[in-house]
Amino acid sequence: QVQLQESGPGLVKPSETLSLTCTVSGGSVTSGNDYWNWIRQPPGKGLEWIGFIYYSGYTNYNPSLESRVTISVDTSKNQFSLKLSSVTAADTAVYYCARENNGVGFDIWGQGTMVTVSS
Amino acid sequence: DIQMTQSPSSLSASVGDRVTITCQASQDISNYINWYQQKPGKAPKLLIYDTSNLETGVPSRFSGSGSGTDFTFTISSLQPEDVATYYCQQFDNLPRTFGQGTRLEIK
């Protein structure tokens, strides 16, 4: 059974870069059917899709964040990562990694990690 | 971007009631819509994919229908454990987008 686990700092200073990693267990990031996503949720608000990566390295990002986002994959570690640069308080959120299976739905999610942007 | 407009934004119903949530897409998305349940402090859970297909293990009281721009999510008989926020999400196009959520409470 595939499981996802986010990791990374819970506190980031304004203007710095947020970095998170999602570790995949019970499955492989090189699965040809899967896209590996980052989704975030500000406190008390709805869900925002950040972007995805395919194991080949193909990425797609939300245009609202595209200039600041990089998603990468490390197949040797079975992980994928998120970098979000020049963060502000508006980037404070719970960040989830999630699998999109066969391009249909986000069927597996990590537990989420809270990231606060504050000096 | 495709906008997904959910209604109502909140809903209070009694145990055993039939509950309906609607989602309207800003353009035709065929049947490319999913529905998620999120309980407080937890990650969202996929309930229904591709408009009407129940994810494995999801109770049959949950259902979905619709096509084009108008979609419906239904709980046939509300149970106490269904208290949650529900989201629709389109996968017809990139970027993936979600509705704003419907908070469901028990009367």
What is the molecular shape of chain A? globular
Briefly note the structural class of the backbone of chain A: mainly beta
Order of helices and strands of chain B, N to C?
Answer: EEEEEEEEEEE
Distance between the termini of chain A: 39 Å
Strand content of chain A: over 45%
Structure annotation, total helices of chain B: 0
Percent helix of chain A, as a range, is under 10%
Percent in strands of chain B: over 45%
The pLDDT mean of chain A sits at 96
SSE sequence of chain A, one letter per element: EEEEEEEEEEE
Number of helices in the DSSP assignment of chain A: 0
- Over the alpha carbons, how many angstroms does the gyration radius of chain A reach? 13 Å
Largest sheet of chain A: 7 strands, mixed
Structural class by SSE content of chain B: mainly beta
Q: How far do the termini of chain B sit from each other? A: 36 Å
Helix content of chain B: under 10%
Residue stretches of chain A low in confidence (pLDDT < 50, at least 5 long) are none
Total number of strands of chain B = 11
Rg of chain B, alpha carbons:
13 Å
